[in-house]
Description:
The protein has helices at residues 17-24, 27-44, 51-66, 89-93. The protein is mainly α. Helix 2 (27-44) runs antiparallel to helix 3 (51-66). The two termini are 22 Å apart.
Amino acid sequence: MNDATSPDHYKIGGIECIDYLRAKLTPEEFAGFLRGNALKYLSRAGHKGDATEDYRKALWYVRYLANLSGVEGQVRPIPRCLYTFQRTDQDKSTH
């Protein structure tokens, strides 16, 4: 699959970057990574390319962060639906 959230170059080495980070970081560090990326996309929205795309990317990280269970450091699996951005027909017509 080659899309905005899971391009082929993210999977070099047989594992997607975010899955590798999730495996290597503590739950607290991983939550900080997710929060930091959400803040990055919100902060740059409208200053680098399409603001709507930055808002979608921020939302992806916020949804991922919201899905963390926080129970004894366990992280629930992320539904695959969160791995893709879904553009509406209205979004497509404005680009």
